[in-house]
Write a structure and sequence with these properties.
4 domains; about 55% helix; Beta-Lactamase; five-stranded antiparallel sheet
């Protein structure tokens, strides 16, 4: 049949030409498809090479360690950061169980990480890898690597060496501790500077009750000598008439009447000395104590008394305080704040012919407040926003550190209070201090009260 068909084709040249044209067309189409596929393959290969080169450059640029493992924890890929850490090339690391790179105390943690990855990624897990210079702590993030079906095919781990972070953290802690110590020293230095300005007034304040006690003790000693003389006479069995005459001569009746007043006066003077010493210790103490309720009126009066006693010129004081006023905080620290505020007000009135100071206090539902108003010249507007800045002062060089208001502002803020300052419309500067007046309720107490 084939020979017959060939014979038929040969006998019809037109049919033969058409067949060959069809074959050539098919061959051309096939060749064109092959060329197209070759071009596509080359393009895809170029894209793969570019992608691989991009990924390699990204991995090489990473400072963090990159490790890719299969489900069994066998290393499949690493980056140059791990090579540098371990001192081994990638071809020696690939195929190793990842756990062999982990320091012994942390190897059990790797098993826990693999189990956890089936449920959720692991974040900031601290492990130590064995480096060529010893163990290196890492903060490791681990994520599951899944195949096209969504099944877990392995894990990807990225670790950041903690050495630099720990070093930076330690340096930050050290700097913070130094700043905190410097702040405490500045506070104590300013407090001692304020205390030094008050020494003269306090010395005078102590001298009065001590002189009173001293005089009373001299009187008591004289009365004691008289009583000893009288009782010696009683012990010698002197007659009644002799004892009566001796009693009149020694004026024992008057001495006995004076004893109670002398003892009471001595006790009063000693109590006054004790109160002054207590206030001084409270003011100069640098130890932090728990915030407690304290007599705000007493702190105001003591601070005012010290400053006015020490002042080298008369100051008219208008004091408007309620009968009782309690505040919450460290009484010694608040005492320092009020001393600074009053001292600044007195210093601002140095050029006034008649210095006048108005001190008022009161309370609202949640706070106690205290205001100081002087009749000085006030402050320029450009200074008002800077008065609480450290080392800012309007006083001449050598007369102010510029720390008083800054430290006072910090103390009041730490107490949960407010400290503000503004020029008064009629002249002078008004300073307002606000403090909490009760201990804040805990969540449990609020729930119970609710």
């Amino acid at each position: 049949m084939a020979s017959k068909k060939s014979k038929d084709i040969a006998e019809t040249p037109e049919l033969a030409d058409e067949a060959w044209v069809s074959v050539i067309q098919k061959m051309d189409e096939t060749y064109a498809d092959l060329v197209h596929y070759q071009v596509e393959i080359e393009r895809k290969n170029l894209e793969l090479e570019q992608t691989q080169g991009f990924l390699d450059s990204v991995q090489s640029a990473m400072n963090d360690v990159l490790i890719v493992c299969d489900k069994q924890g066998v290393i499949q890929q690493v980056n140059s950061a791990l090579e540098q850490l371990t001192g081994e090339q990638a071809d020696r690391l690939i195929g190793k169980p990842f756990v062999e790179l982990v320091a012994q105390p942390y190897q059990s943690k790797i098993t826990a990480i693999q189990n956890q990855l089936r449920l959720t990624p692991v974040r900031d897990c601290e492990v130590e890898l064995m480096g060529h210079e010893g163990s290196v702590p890492l903060a490791m993030n681990c994520s599951p690597r899944k195949d096209k079906r969504g099944r877990m095919a392995g894990m990807v781990m990225v670790g950041r060496p903690l050495g630099e972070l720990q070093k930076a953290y330690k340096e930050l802690n050290k700097t913070h501790a130094e700043l905190k110590l410097a702040q405490e020293r500045l506070i104590q230095s300013e407090k001692m500077a304020s205390l030094g300005r008050l020494v003269a007034g306090v010395a005078h304040e102590l001298n009065n009750p001590i002189s009173f006690v001293y005089g009373n003790m001299h009187a008591l000693r004289r009365y004691t000598e008289k009583l000893v003389t009288y009782f010696n006479a009683v012990g010698e069995n002197s007659s009644r008439e002799e004892l009566r005459a001796l009693r009149e001569n020694l004026r024992l009746d008057r001495a006995i009447q004076d004893l109670n007043s002398l003892v009471a006066g001595t006790m009063e003077g000693a109590d006054r000395v004790r109160d002054i010493v207590r206030d001084l210790r409270q003011f100069s103490s640098c130890q932090e104590a728990e915030k407690t309720l304290f007599d705000f009126n007493h702190v105001i009066k003591t601070a005012l008394h010290w400053i006015i006693k020490e002042s080298n010129r008369p100051v008219q004081v208008d004091l408007n305080l309620p009968p009782q006023l309690m505040a919450l905080g460290h009484s010694g620290q608040i005492h320092q704040v009020i001393v600074n505020l009053i001292q600044n007000a007195v210093d601002a009135m140095q050029q006034q012919p008649q210095a006048r100071l108005e001190l008022s206090a009161g309370e609202t539902a949640e706070r106690v407040w205290f205001t100081i108003l002087d009749n000085g010249p006030g402050l320029p507007e450009e200074h008002l926003s800077r008065v609480f800045d450290p080392f800012f002062t309007t006083k001449p060089v050598g007369e102010g550190t510029g720390l008083g208001l800054s430290i006072s502002y910090g103390i009041v803020t730490e107490h949960g209070g407010k400290l503000s300052l503004h020029n008064y419309p009629s002249g002078g500067v008004m300073v307002r201090l606000e403090l909490p007046k009760q201990v804040p309720l805990t969540a449990h107490q609020e729930d119970r009260n609710g």
